[in-house]
């Protein structure tokens, strides 16, 4: 399933989107002036609530939805003027389980390869089916498979024509935790083989586990695009909890600038701070605690999750 990339191609983005907008006949503006660049070989997670525009964006890039305005290049090919070239480079795993129920796994994956004009290659199809743990199911009809296996077949169909770019629209929806983790492993191996992955997901842990970069879309607008680690660093909050040696009845006036919270039993002080504040803020707090004669026996820290950051962005709190 590997993808060979020439030296001249490495610096070229996998996908370039310029001023992309989409307004449907109903008047609904699903996308508003989206500018986005997807790097070659990365896993990019696109997050957003229902109706945010994620599926519309994917549909336009994959040639399934016509844009109202803007330009999209797939590996340098314009999706409108060079439709065939652009579309042949892209694989799509949609949310809906749309498979030919009466066909066998082998036949439906082979057929998908032929749709893109690719010559027969039983060896490639076998590699795809083995990678997705479908080889033993190759002669079974789709209708006889479990929901999780059907979703694997959808991925196999998308990979049949050896795309360089793979869109996964809610790839693990309705899949149990064990299968979800197996599919995460599959996605990582695809990336390692040179495939660029763009996924949308409702499972924030999926983005936190998998993505190199994260984009947040809300009401048709791209709110933010950031490296995952940088996003966690810049927008995350940390919580420092101090177990006090003696009960404290109230927070001394000298410490009010830290916006500390005192537990009901007076045994714990909680300090919540932005990650940028870092050690300097903690060091100052500990020095001021010492000056105030407040001793502690233990401390522990917690960092905000990507889910908390995402909710804050969507609500406009950050």
Describe the structure.
This protein has helices spanning 54-61, 83-88, 105-115, 122-131, 147-159, 177-192, 204-210, 228-235, 278-291, 306-314; strands at residues 15-23, 29-38, 43-47, 69-74, 77-78, 90-93, 165-169, 196-200, 213-218, 221-227, 237-244, 261-262, 268-274, 296-303. The protein is 32% helix and 26% strand. It folds into 2 domains: 15-233, Rossmann fold (3-Layer(aba) Sandwich); 236-314, 2-Layer Sandwich (Alpha-Beta Plaits). With 318 residues, it is an alpha/beta fold.
Classified in CATH, the superfamily of the largest domain is P-loop containing nucleotide triphosphate hydrolases
Tally of separate domains: 2
Question: What is the CATH topology of the largest domain?
Answer: Rossmann fold
Strand content range: 25-35%
Basic shape: elongated
Give me the count of strands: 14
Kindly report the average pLDDT value: 84
DSSP helix fraction: 25-40%
The total of helices stands at: 10
End-to-end C-alpha gap: 41 Å
Please mark out the parts with pLDDT under 50 across 5 or more consecutive residues, or reply none.
Answer: 4-8
Protein structure class:
alpha/beta
Major beta-sheet overview:
6 strands, mixed
H and E string: EEEHEEHEHHHEHEHEEHEEEHEH
